[in-house]
Amino acid sequence: MSKIAALQFPTLALSESRLDYYLKASKDSGANLVVLGEYVLNSFFTELLAMPKSMIKEQSEAKKESLIRLAKKYELEI
User: Fold this and answer.
1) How confident is the model at residue 72 (pLDDT cuts 50, 70, 90)?
2) I want to staple 26 with a disulfide (CB 3.0 to 4.6 A). Which of 5, 12, 30, 53 is the partner?
3) Nearest to residue 7, comparing CAs of 29, 75, 44, 57?
4) Are residues 77 and 23 in contact, defined by beta-carbon separation less than 8 angstroms?
5) CA 74: distance to chain centroid?
6) What's the predicted TM-score (pTM) here?
7) A Gene Ontology molecular-function term (predicted)?
8) DSSP H or E segment with residue 45
């Protein structure tokens, strides 16, 4: 049977330490699937309107790589 953890936060900072903490806690509680709410990883859409596309792309790629690394570390599906 699968256990699912649903995590809803305001936008997290570029540092992956908080995300690491919550994914570890999810794994420790027996979850194998983690669902993240909207805007947890990227800025709210109104903030994105004022950001250069290159910065949005850079942040998105960094978060994607972080998710891949942490999913492997904790053996989670995100």
Assistant:
1) very high
2) 5
3) 29
4) no
5) 13
6) 0.80
7) hydrolase activity
8) helix 45-49
